[in-house]
Specification:
4 domains; rod-shaped
């Protein structure tokens, strides 16, 4: 009998030792992974049951469970009586509380499987265990939110990855051209310039919760899920992080607006909102949500797809808010100034496509993640199509931009400035636009273009769709300018107008990064064009005056007087009109003046000599050669003047 009792006692001691070893391993976060912990938890329950099985009576076993239940209850209720917080009770006390709760859970499971579970005493103990467990779960659910609130890191402004915005480009233009697509001319308002910092952005993850608190939160999750209170944990956990994400969006200055509100916004306001949307999207998808997903994985590790499911539920609404704004932008009018903002949105989204696919992977099979992914992909495709449509319609906007009056002073039109500055921004998006256009059939009739130019355009298309398109746009612009030049009554001013605008096109392209889209041959051809217009202007404007200065063999005093008077009148008329003309580029203006001055002075000096030889009085010779040279330097300043000199006596 003593040997038998000794064997039983040894078995009990061994069982107790194994039981405590399993509990120790199950409580370790460093030694075992999630799958091992599940096995240990199940073994823990079995050992708990076995520890109650011995040669004692059923009543003794029930009494042992009752005593253990009271001990665990006392531990749990001590926090309630003191009104203290589990997480604020001191080192080790929080885990002691969780161990007591886990003990109640195991005892409740043991009672369910004991033969006495149907007896009055068994039912009482079982109900008591469930009541204790329910109260403990309610406290854990409440304190979970408090732990998260106390230990959540407040993200600094620099951690929000808010990238800077470059200033918008501006230019001077004539007030007569006042609307982007009107019956007159296109106004000059360069679209918002892209932030070059986008390529310098790097993803950085941070701890959203203090690392020391993660272990405790994870332990709470394990106890609540093991006690079949997983839904309560999910509700509290998801609710907290949904609110935290809303607060984070406030730091990013993101406000939810309806589609109707977006459509009513003026362009300046909408442009600012789109820029902010791009910055916020980079921060949200590239920084905050990955940090949040990592945290969910750390806490819910070992619970199957629970991490993915909770993350998607806590994040879906805010992501859909972002996507809804993008959908509203697409619905708006497809005007040229929207192109670069749409491309910014497209590039931000395409740059984070893989991130979003990972973040919203449907591990739980609910379909919520795939819904978000599909909406994201759909918006990305629509943004690309809208940007492509706007880009390809630029030529039509230019071609349809007509005018009934000649542009003031023969200067550079708003349309020319707008188109060239618009194209300057294309360089930043060249790669994206090429991807969007690569399957587009762009070889069409570019307008009034020579066969040589068509050949050049086709060669450019073979190299790059964007190169082809930009060259076709400049050809359409030239045709538009040529039509507008016909509005000038003065043939010479027509060529000043064409010279100014083509020279401006050459200068903008030659001194910018888009030069690679045009090539040296295009530049040489257009340099010849504006020089030819300058030559033609000179021939038309000065041809008649220079012909008056020629030596036609006339020697009569009366005839020389008439010639002198005609020259004076012609020069004064030319001076009055051409001081009102405009050549905005200083170097070009000086070149035209120098050329005209040289030809005029070289012809006038011998003419003045013949007048003096013919004894023509100085009262008829109003100007010296130097006077004429000086007066020519007044030309092309867009400030009309008159020569009201007294006749010399």
């Amino acid at each position: 009998m003593e040997n038998s009792e000794s064997v039983i006692d040894s078995q009990q001691h061994l069982l107790a030792a194994v039981y405590h070893l399993v509990k120790a391993l199950n409580g370790s976060n460093d030694l075992v992974n999630g799958d091992m912990k599940r096995v240990l938890s199940e073994l823990d329950v079995q050992l708990s049951r076995l520890s109650l099985v011995d040669d004692t009576s059923e009543a003794d076993r029930t009494k042992e469970i009752e005593n253990r239940l009271k001990f665990a209850q006392k531990k749990i209720m001590s926090f309630e009586s003191k009104g203290s917080k589990v997480w604020d009770s001191g080192p080790g006390e929080d885990y002691g509380y969780l161990q007591a709760v886990d003990e109640v859970r195991r005892l409740a499971n043991s009672l369910e499987n004991m033969p006495t579970s149907q007896t009055l005493k068994g039912k009482q103990l079982r109900d008591e265990a469930q009541n204790i467990l329910q109260a403990a779960m309610a406290k854990l659910q409440e304190e979970l939110v408090q732990i998260l609130s106390k230990n959540m890191k407040q993200l600094a402004a620099h951690e929000s990855v808010c990238l800077p915005i470059l200033c918008e480009e501006t230019a001077v233009g004539d007030e007569e051209e006042s609307s982007i697509v009107s019956a007159e001319d296109i106004s000059f308002e360069v679209p918002g310039q892209r932030s070059r910092a986008i390529n310098e952005y790097e993803q950085h993850l941070v701890d959203l919760v203090h690392p020391n608190a993660i272990t405790l939160i994870k332990a709470i999750a394990e106890v609540m899920f093991a006690s079949d209170y997983g839904q309560e944990f999910r509700h509290a956990f998801i609710g907290f992080w949904r609110k935290a994400l809303d607060d984070y969006l406030i730091t990013l200055n993101v406000k939810q607006v309806s589609i109707e509100d977006v459509l009513k916004m003026d362009w300046k306001c909408l442009n600012c909102r789109i820029k902010n949307w791009c910055r916020a999207t980079r921060s949200l998808i590239g920084f905050y949500l990955p940090s949040k997903r990592r945290l969910f994985n750390q806490i819910l590790e070992g619970l199957g797809s629970m991490s993915s499911s909770c993350f998607i539920e806590a994040s879906k609404a805010s992501v859909m808010c972002f996507l809804n704004f993008g959908q509203a932008v697409i619905i708006g009018p497809k005007t040229p100034e929207r192109l670069f903002c749409l491309l910014d949105m497209y590039e931000v989204m395409s740059g984070h496509l893989q991130d979003l696919n990972y973040l919203f992977a449907d591990d739980d099979g609910s379909g919520l993640g795939s819904f978000v992914r599909n909406e994201f992909h759909e918006l990305l495709e629509k943004l690309g199509n809208s940007a492509k449509e706007i880009f390809l319609q630029l030529g039509n906007h230019i071609a349809s931009n007509t005018s009934r009056t000649a542009f003031t002073s023969g200067g550079i039109t708003h349309l020319t400035r707008y188109v060239m500055n618009y194209m300057m921004l294309v360089q930043d998006y060249g790669h994206t636009l090429n991807l969007l256009l690569e399957e587009q059939n762009l070889i069409d009739n570019p307008g009034r273009v020579s066969n040589a130019e068509v050949s050049q355009i086709i060669d450019g298309y073979r190299t790059s769709p964007v190169a082809h398109f930009l060259q076709s746009v400049t050809s359409i612009l030239e045709a538009n300018l040529d039509a507008k030049s016909d509005l000038y009554r003065d043939e010479a001013l027509k060529h000043i107008f064409m010279m100014n605008n083509i020279h401006y096109m050459v200068q903008k392209i030659e001194n910018s990064e888009i030069r690679s889209y045009f090539g040296d041959e295009w530049l040489r051809r257009h340099v010849r064009k504006f020089r030819q217009h300058a030559t033609t202007y000179e021939r038309i404007a000065w041809g008649n005056i220079l012909s008056m200065l020629k030596d036609d063999g006339c020697k009569g005093k009366a005839a020389l007087k008439v010639k002198c008077q005609k020259f004076n009148a012609a020069f004064e008329e030319l001076y009055k009109s051409q001081t009102g003309w405009n050549i905005p580029d200083r170097e070009l203006r000086e070149d035209v003046r120098i050329s005209a001055s040289g030809k005029l002075i070289n012809a006038y000096r011998p003419f003045a000599g013949r007048l003096r030889d013919g004894c023509i009085s100085d009262r008829y010779i109003k100007y010296t050669a130097d006077d004429l040279g000086n007066y020519i330097w007044d030309l092309f300043e867009a400030s009309p003047k008159s020569l009201n000199h007294h006749i010399r006596r």
